[in-house]
Amino acid sequence: MVILIICFLSALIYFGLYLFMKPSKWRVYLGWISMLICVVSLILSMLNINEHFGMISVDTVKTERLTPINNQKKIIVKDNKVEYATQEGKAKLDCLKKNVRITKKTQNAFVISIHSTWQFKNDFWKFLFQLPNQNYSQTKGCEFYLPSGWQVEK
After folding, report:
1. pTM of the complete model
2. CA–CA separation, 22 vs 6, rounded Å?
3. What angle do CA 63, 65, 67 make, to 5 degrees?
4. What is the CA radius of gyration of the chain?
């Protein structure tokens, strides 16, 4: 958020110099410096949006045992969501269908989910780039291991 404010202020200074300052070498130098700051801040914000510049990816692997949903041994895959029940209760997992892998013929039913979270490298990058209510996490993939009696409902 601060990077956008820096960009806006440097552009405002650039236009203010050329509107209110008499032609001189200082106007040219200060104009170039303020425009350079504006361009660099725009490039940094685009790198942060597209390439997660100033951030690191932290992956967590979570394994959960599955229990039957309504006494039916099944999991439900629909609309890029996987619905299943764990021992703690019913759960929905945001996982793209292409990232769901189902393996049968195991003894116990369980799911392994890989969750990726983008975190800022340090407080400086957090100060520059953090936007309010921005979600930096996603589920990369899920692997379901099911006994042969379980069904996959699509």
Report:
1. 0.66
2. 25
3. 150
4. 25
